[in-house]
Write a structure and sequence with these properties.
homodimer; alpha/beta; Nucleotidyltransferase, domain 5; five-stranded mixed sheet; 14 strands; transferase (chains A, B); kinase activity (chains A, B); ATPase_NBD (chains A, B); Glucokinase (chains A, B); ROK (chains A, B)
């Protein structure tokens, strides 16, 4: 796919704020000041503010031709309908596409945020030009998005890509849904911190949870701390188990990994690649890349804007 | 997709014999006597025999318009090229599509056998009318095929669907590739037998491996043997862990399960459904069906014939 020449708005709807930007061909032309969700009583007022912001942006960018919104929750993509956003009060059964489309007169697409991130990496980021891509965002939880045969794969209920809920141990730690061995109960930021505190305690080193963020463990490892290095190897073992299972199932071209854990760089990517290779056949491994994400905070805006632009061609 | 009106030949290339049949619209019109692979010295002679058999079938079915061949190994689908069949001597780097196409003058498709089985179930079997389907064949190993967005998904190197190699335990039993926790090392027929012998031994009952086939364990459970029931529950736990991980990743409409284990019927399907439900969110579970395969031995012929017929419309 070549670069889009369409100008579009990307909206990254987070738990506390809504960020807007204008993109063309994967380039972020401008970003608007974030809208704090708490300032607006319910969906109607907040969508009204989005429309007002878009109207203003169109004064500078009159060629804006489409709007893409990514939300932190379950959507019905075909109808642009938001089922529920658990972290945003009042957002339940909202026909976002219909309302925003009516207020702006522009075509609107509504997508899950992890899917939008995957699309940004596929279309203009680390996985550009590849056909089958699995993207992960690692933070408190682990989200994922799939590009299969060059298209976003959403699954039967727009709920695909929940990599953090996949099991790495049939009798392991229960996840949010009681699902034993859920990956994010091993490699979510909180669980990494808990594990690190325990590993240090075993070596008679006292650390608090606050001292064991991915960044701090990475800094410690870089400074020569053997325990910190060992923790990264363990994270690589757990995460690599999931990635190799996904690779056996989907035989993809690439994994793209973003979020705090990915920022540890070689500390995580080196043992992770070794682990995944050790779990695969040559045929599956030899076409597989394991890549850090190109985008971070701007992934949502670029992904949603690109989805919107590509939806009208 | 409606029933195909095209008549086509399906060829199911197994480790010891090659089976041929003529199909139309998912219906098996006739089958030919199997060709024993050992009677033919190498690919050229065997492909010659296939072509001769097809010529004969065309005397009765002059409207045969395409040929589909499924092989037990890795293929390049786009080129109809067989990389290697580990169980059939001499089958390495064989341009099967080109040779068989030239000998018959008909369009030929070459597919992996597990993919062909998945296609048969999707097109005319248990998963007919569904869009996202994961099919498993359980025997010595566990093969799989994926239908995503209404199409066979092959992956970047035509190697997708290796469900038996996915891990259910990050520190579990090593699979064929050294991959820790490989599902088929828990639920392959041989491993089930070994596990059963051990479970019986713990209860001071002596059984041989030969007395612990899936069928025998199913018969024992039906006759009221508590140990046998417990074994089925354990198989359901292991298999269900894999299925739930796949469901989180792909949010499919259905799993279709064939092979010896599936023939245990409710003994496996009841605890399997309970296990998978216990591992999923309502959203993912509520659209998910777990179904026994419709086809058994004829799956290969019907799947390959259907792939060939659908490839020329």
């Amino acid at each position: 796919m070549s670069e889009s020449s369409i100008t579009s708005v990307g909206i990254d709807f987070g738990g506390t704020s809504v960020k807007l930007g204008v993109c063309r061909g994967g380039e972020l032309l401008t970003t608007d000041a974030p809208i704090p969700t708490a300032h607006f009583a319910g969906p109607a007022a907040l969508i009204g503010e989005m429309a007002a912001r878009i109207a203003k942006l169109r004064e500078t960018y009159p060629d804006i031709a489409a709007i893409g919104v990514g939300v932190p929750g379950l959507v019905d993509f075909d109808h642009g309908f938001v089922h529920i956003l658990t972290n945003v009060p009042g957002w339940k059964h909202v026909p976002l596409k219909a309302i925003l489309g009516e207020k702006t007169g522009l075509p609107v697409v509504v997508e899950n945020d992890a899917n939008a991130m995957a699309y940004a990496e596929f279309r203009y980021g680390a996985a550009r030009g590849l056909n089958n891509v699995v993207a992960l965002t690692m933070g408190t939880g682990i989200g994922g998005g799939l590009i299969l045969n060059g298209q976003l794969y959403r699954g039967s209920g727009c709920a695909a890509g929940e990599i953090g809920q996949m099991s790495i141990h049939f009798d392991g730690k229960p996840g949010h849904y009681g699902n034993l061995g859920a990956l994010e109960k091993y490699t979510g930021n909180k669980e990494i911190a808990e594990h690190a505190v325990q590993r240090y305690a075993e070596a008679h080193v006292q650390k608090t949870l606050e001292e064991c963020t991915p960044k701090m463990i990475a800094d410690a490892a870089k400074a020569g701390d053997d325990i910190a290095r060992q923790i990264w190897d363990e994270i690589a073992d757990w995460l690599g188990t999931s990635l190799s299972s996904i690779a056996w199932l989907l035989n993809p071209d690439a994994f793209v990994i973003g979020g705090g854990v990915a920022q540890a760089g070689d500390l995580i990517f080196d043992p992770l690649k070794r682990k995944v290779q050790s779990m695969l056949s040559t045929v599956v491994w030899e076409r597989l890349q394991i890549l850090p994400a190109r985008y971070s905070n701007e992934a949502g805006i670029i992904g949603n804007a690109s989805l919107a632009a590509d939806s009208i061609v």
